[in-house]
Write a structure and sequence with these properties.
This protein has 318 residues and is of the alpha+beta class. It is built from eight helices and 20 strands. The termini are far apart.
C-alpha cells in the first residue's frame, strides 16, 4: 500500500520471491524481502502486508532499467524495522555492533587451500588496531566459521550478524586457524565513523624490520618471480617505508597467478595466515602445500593500487 506518483491509497499485489536478499545496493546490514508487487515512486516507506493483514516489511527499493516498476522490488523485513524503532525510541540513534575487521568471502579454491571442506565463512583480511577483534586475539588470516554457535555463510552474513549485536555485548566466535578451530569471546564496541575505520590502521602502523632470507628467486610452482623487500628494493621500486612481504617482479603468462590477476608490483604479505618476510617463506609454504597434497595456496596480497585481497593460486603440477 502506498502513494505511487501521488495516487494515494493504491494497493498492488504479488508474491514473495525470496528472503534474505543481500545483493541489493546498500544491503550491508539488511537482508531484503524480494517481492513482485509493483513499487513505484511514492511507494517507498509504505507497508508490505501479508494476506492476514500483518505488516511483514517496508517498501524500499527496486531493480529497474527504466526507473519504474518491472516486478522486482525489495522490502526491509519488519523484524529489522522493529529493532531500529526500539533503539530510536530508547536512545534517539541507531548504533551498530563493531568487531573491527575487514573481511571477504571464501571461494571454493580458497577453502581447499587452507584445508576446509566448505567455502562457508568469512576470512579476515585486516584487523584494525585497538578494535575488539584485536583485543580478543583474532588475527589476519583467521576464517570466521561461527558466531554464537551459528554458522557464518559469507562476509555479508557476518557483517549483518555483528551489526545486530548491542554495544558491550559479549559474543563467541569460532575461527579456523592453522588447520584447527579456535574459539574467542569478543566484547562488541560501537561502530566508529567510516572515515575513522578507513584510515585507522594502515597509516599508523609501525614498520617491521626486513626479515627472512632469499633475495630474488623464481617460484616455479606459482609462476612468480619474487624478491625480498630490502631498503635497496624500496628505493628501486619506490615502495613506502611500511611496505611488507615480498615483491612480485614477474608473472608467467601461462600461470594461474596471471589468470587470477596478479601483476608485477603486487606484494605477497601472507600465505594461509602466516606472515611472509622473505622469498624463503613463500617457498616453505609451497612445500607444505605439496606435502599436504593441496593443489593451491591462499595468498594475501596488497596490489600495486593498495587493495588488500585474498587470492587462491593453483600450484603448477610440474
Amino acid at each position: 500500500i502506498g502513494n505511487p506518483f501521488g495516487l494515494g491509497g493504491t494497493v498492488t499485489a504479488g508474491i514473495v520471491s525470496a528472503r534474505g536478499r543481500d545483493e541489493v545496493s546498500g544491503a550491508q546490514f539488511t537482508d531484503y524481502l524480494q517481492i513482485d508487487a509493483a513499487i513505484n515512486q511514492g511507494n517507498s516507506g509504505g507497508p508490505t502486508f501479508d494476506l492476514s493483514g500483518r505488516v511483514i516489511g517496508m517498501n524500499t527499493a527496486i531493480f529497474s532499467p527504466s526507473g519504474g516498476s518491472v516486478g522486482i522490488g525489495f522490502a526491509i523485513p519488519s523484524n529489522t524495522i522493529r529493532r531500529v524503532v526500539e533503539e530510536l525510541k530508547r536512545s534517539g540513534a541507531v548504533t551498530r555492533g563493531w568487531l573491527g575487521v575487514q573481511i571477504q568471502s571464501l571461494s571454493d579454491d580458497a577453502a581447499e587451500a587452507v584445508g576446509l571442506k566448505s567455502a562457508s565463512g568469512a576470512i579476515v583480511a585486516e584487523v584494525i588496531d585497538g578494535s575488539p577483534a584485536e583485543k580478543a586475539g583474532i588475527k589476519q588470516g583467521d576464517i570466521v566459521l561461527k558466531m554464537n554457535g551459528t554458522a557464518i555463510k559469507d562476509n555479508r552474513d557476518l557483517s549483518r550478524k555483528v551489526a545486530g549485536l548491542q554495544v558491550g555485548q559479549s559474543a563467541s566466535f569460532t575461527v579456523w586457524r592453522g588447520e584447527r578451530e579456535v574459539n574467542f569471546n569478543v566484547t562488541i564496541a560501537k561502530r566508529p565513523g567510516e572515515d575513522r575505520v578507513a584510515r585507522n590502521d594502515r597509516n599508523d602502523r609501525k614498520s617491521g624490520k626486513d626479515g627472512g632470507s632469499g633475495g630474488e628467486a623464481k617460484v616455479a610452482a606459482l609462476g612468480l618471480d619474487l624478491t625480498t623487500i630490502t631498503q635497496a628494493v624500496r628505493n628501486e621500486y619506490d615502495l613506502d617505508a611500511t611496505a611488507k612481504g615480498v615483491l612480485i617482479t614477474d608473472v608467467a603468462d601461462d600461470s594461474d597467478a596471471a589468470e587470477r590477476g596478479l601483476r608485477p608490483g603486487d606484494r605477497i604479505i601472507a600465505i594461509a595466515g602466516t606472515e611472509v618476510r622473505g622469498v624463503a617463506d613463500v617457498k616453505a609454504a609451497v612445500d607444505d602445500a605439496k606435502a599436504s597434497k593441496r593443489s593451491s595456496v591462499l595468498l594475501f596480497v596488497e596490489t600495486a593500487r593498495g587493495n588488500r585481497v585474498y587470492i587462491p593460486v593453483k600450484l603448477n603440477k610440474s
